[in-house]
Amino acid sequence: xxxxxxxxxxxxxxxxxxxxxxxxxxxxxxxxxxxxxxxxxxxxxxxxxxxxxxxxxxxxxxxxxxxxxxxxxxxxxxxxxxxxxxxxxxxxxxxxx
Length: 97
Known about the structure:
5 strands
């Protein structure tokens, strides 16, 4: 009886983890597909300047690349995700002041 309870608890916990992971992935795909603006604050690390935009890397449900239109104040800045640019396949970021 005790073993059955432990097995059922582990199965339920695994199901909850899978559901949470699935909902995060589904939301990320929806943001990419619909170009939804989201108010997410991320810590971006600026890598290089390319074609008058500053390319950076940030972490939000995985590693992603983004860009700033204006020059950031340092190499690590807090930023807000403005949108997703399908042409460059990167997120547009805006620096928090």
